[in-house]
């Protein structure tokens, strides 16, 4: 029943007819302390004369929805919450702020106070009090807070709670919410079935079809209404839609009773586990992993195993069937840095996804996969929700744009994603796979069966992480080993990228790893350090082929040190001719990317999802007669 068709007599009669005692009230009835007549909700309607007398006494005309309510039922008994009874027309009166709330609320107002905050501060002295029985709670109609229909806002203030009053735009809105709460309180009673419950359950079924057909916003509206009535399944399905609408990083606390279904565990529990790990923080005490619903031993045991895998970064989302094959292919692309291709593969596979349980609406398990989760941004989560799946017909949505800009020039952006330092260094090796890089530049120089130290998975990142590489205890003071995120670009180059090099710039003992990396072809090394204050920006480029460095230059401000024959297309004197200082880094990067066809995947690097490699030192050891100085700073608490 919408507001245009609202009829108080029909609404209240339905509420009275559907009323059944709560568990506590049923116990009172069984003990004989209460009769059904004592628990009746409705009262006889007030006459027009009784309402008019009340208005003369109060000196105002009552707002429309409250006035119409009195003419349908002169008072109402509320058995839930903290307001127990709404009085008859002759029992209501002005509140008068008996507890002196007005000064306290007005003292909190300042120049930034909203109109609503100002209205609330004045509400206490002008409000009309409706309740006649409550648990230290008050139902207050405010004639100073009105809408275009002449309705007064209704505030419920729970004096024992210490909270701000709850606001409803009208008396009718308040009563409709109480009717929904009445249903929600009794939703799990086995015999609580009526026309309203059947209608809301039909909404849940329709929402399921809408969601799977890509009409997720219509589904959400239906589920939100059913959830307010406490209908089974509505909460869990609504949380699924809301979680995907936020994309990776959504902090979902519960999916209701759906987690108790073993068929839903692999999709829902990992998302809860990821939120749990993020909330726990590093080094803190272990917290109980609550699933938000009662589960059997098998589900809880599976959840504990999933939590352990999510915590150490080894969890993988692996659905069955054709969609599972698409997920595996997408993960292979994403772990090499090509998150845009990964999303296109997932997008193409979505229509083939089938829910393992009836109330599962989408492949939420994607969000908890350490490699694929960051691929599902908010915009992509919305695209997923709008895509028909599970065999449903419908037009797919307009694809969202790719995330990675081409080339390298994005590195020159002033706010460069989440790196806290002003320096970065990169390595590219042509015509090799990322797995070959450990054998070329790894710190152990070829030890191990794979020809090097091997690649390691990206560490589990806390919320708000930023890359930082501290010097290890077993390193010599002069050593500078890079911890690089490793992947492959679409132009045949494997890359390594270090967002936070420990050393500030290439100096006296620097030896470019380009020669060692180029044993089978070409290698390119780039190192950029942005200047601070009067410190010049440093830009280093070195290029090697088949184990020998062909040319290199290091640009400090306007001074250039060269070795070998630097091509004119890369020479900074040629590239920077007539270029403003603000555009120097961008122009140098553009020259490098154009010469070699190089690129880097911004999204994969920003999200920290790529495997890592610790390289050999980028500095050589001091030779006889050379000195190396360093300073160690220790900060101790006072």
Strand order of the largest sheet: 15-14-13-12-9-11-10-16
Major β-sheet profile: 8 strands, antiparallel
Distance between the termini: 67 Å
What is the molecular shape?
elongated
| Strands, count | 16
The residue fraction in helices comes out at 25-40%
Overall mean confidence score, pLDDT:
89
- From the helix content, strand content and strand pairing, which structural class follows? alpha+beta
Q: DSSP helix count?
A: 20
What does it look like?
It is a single chain. With 638 residues, the chain is α+β, with helices and mostly antiparallel strands. Helices cover 34% and strands 15% of the residues. It contains 20 helices and 16 strands. It has helices at 8-18, 23-31, 48-58, 64-72, 101-107, 115-126, 171-186, 195-212, 216-228, 234-246, 265-280, 297-312, 321-334, 339-349, 378-385, 437-441, 514-517, 572-575, 584-596, 602-607; strands at 76-77, 83-86, 93-94, 128-129, 131-134, 137-146, 152-158, 166-168, 423-430, 481-488, 493-498, 522-529, 538-545, 548-556, 559-564, 612-617. Strands 15-14-13-12-9-11-10-16 form an 8-stranded antiparallel beta sheet. The chain has a 5-stranded antiparallel beta sheet with strand order 3-4-6-7-8. A hairpin with a 5-residue loop joins strand 6 (137-146) and strand 7. Helix 5 (101-107) runs antiparallel to helix 6. The model is unreliable at 446-452 (pLDDT under 50).
């Amino acid at each position: 029943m919408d507001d245009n068709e609202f009829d108080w007599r029909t609404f209240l009669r339905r509420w009275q007819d559907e009323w059944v005692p709560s568990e506590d009230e049923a116990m009172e009835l069984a003990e004989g302390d209460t009769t059904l007549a004592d628990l009746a909700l409705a009262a006889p309607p007030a006459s027009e004369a009784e309402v008019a007398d009340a208005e003369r006494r109060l000196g105002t005309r009552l707002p429309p929805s409250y006035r119409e309510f009195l003419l349908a039922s002169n008072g109402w008994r509320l058995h839930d919450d903290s307001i127990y009874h709404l009085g008859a027309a002759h029992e209501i009166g002005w509140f008068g702020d008996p507890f002196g709330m007005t000064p306290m609320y007005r003292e909190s107002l300042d120049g930034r106070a909203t109109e609503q905050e100002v209205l609330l501060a004045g509400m206490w002295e002008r409000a009309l009090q409706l309740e006649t029985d409550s648990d230290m709670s008050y139902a207050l109609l405010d004639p100073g807070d009105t809408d275009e229909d002449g309705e007064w806002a209704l505030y419920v203030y729970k004096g024992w709670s210490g909270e701000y009053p709850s606001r409803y735009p009208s008396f009718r809105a308040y009563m409709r919410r109480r009717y929904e709460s009445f249903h929600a309180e009794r939703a799990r009673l086995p015999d609580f079935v009526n026309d309203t419950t059947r209608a809301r359950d039909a909404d849940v079924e329709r929402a399921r079809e809408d969601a799977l057909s890509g009409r997720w916003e219509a589904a959400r509206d239906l589920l939100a209404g059913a959830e307010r009535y406490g209908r089974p399944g509505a909460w869990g399905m609504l949380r699924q839609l809301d979680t995907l609408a936020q994309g990776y990083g959504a902090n979902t606390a519960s999916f209701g009773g759906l987690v108790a279904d073993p068929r839903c565990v692999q999709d829902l529990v990992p998302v809860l586990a990821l939120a749990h790990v993020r909330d726990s923080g590093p080094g803190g005490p272990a917290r109980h992993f609550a699933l938000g619903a009662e589960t059997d031993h098998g589900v809880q045991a599976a959840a504990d195993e999933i939590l352990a895998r999510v915590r150490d970064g080894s969890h993988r989302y692996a659905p069955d069937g054709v969609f599972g094959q698409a997920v595996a292919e997408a993960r292979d692309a994403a772990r090499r840095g090509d998150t845009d291709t990964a999303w296109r593969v997932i997008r193409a596979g979505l229509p083939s996804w089938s829910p393992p349980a009836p109330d599962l609406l989408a492949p939420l398990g994607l969000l908890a996969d350490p490699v694929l989760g960051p691929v599902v941004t908010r915009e992509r989560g919305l695209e997923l929700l709008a895509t028909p799946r599970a065999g449903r017909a419908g037009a797919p949505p307009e694809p969202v744009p790719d995330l990675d800009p081409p080339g390298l020039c994005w590195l020159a952006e002033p706010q460069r994603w989440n790196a806290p330092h002003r320096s970065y260094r990169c390595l590219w090796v042509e015509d090799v796979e990322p797995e070959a890089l450990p054998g070329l530049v790894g710190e152990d120089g070829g030890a191990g069966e794979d020809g090097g130290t091997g690649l390691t998975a990206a560490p589990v990142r806390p919320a708000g992480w930023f890359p930082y590489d501290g010097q290890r205890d077993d390193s010599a003071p002069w050593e500078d080993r890079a911890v690089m995120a490793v992947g492959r670009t679409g132009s045949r180059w494997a890359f390594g990228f270090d967002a936070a090099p420990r050393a500030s710039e290439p100096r006296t003992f620097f030896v470019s790893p380009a020669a060692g990396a180029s044993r089978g072809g070409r290698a390119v090394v780039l190192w950029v350090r942005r200047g601070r204050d009067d410190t010049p920006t440093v830009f280093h480029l070195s290029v090697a082929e088949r184990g020998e460095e062909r040319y290199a230059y290091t640009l400090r401000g306007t001074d250039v040190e060269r070795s070998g024959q630097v091509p004119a297309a890369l020479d900074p004197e040629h590239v920077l001719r007539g270029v403003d200082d603000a555009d120097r880094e961008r122009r140098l990067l553009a020259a490098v990317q154009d010469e070699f066809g190089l690129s880097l995947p911004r999204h994969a690097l920003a999200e920290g999802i790529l495997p890592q490699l610790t390289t050999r030192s980028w500095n050589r050891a001091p030779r006889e007669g050379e000195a190396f100085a360093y300073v160690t700073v220790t900060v101790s608490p006072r």
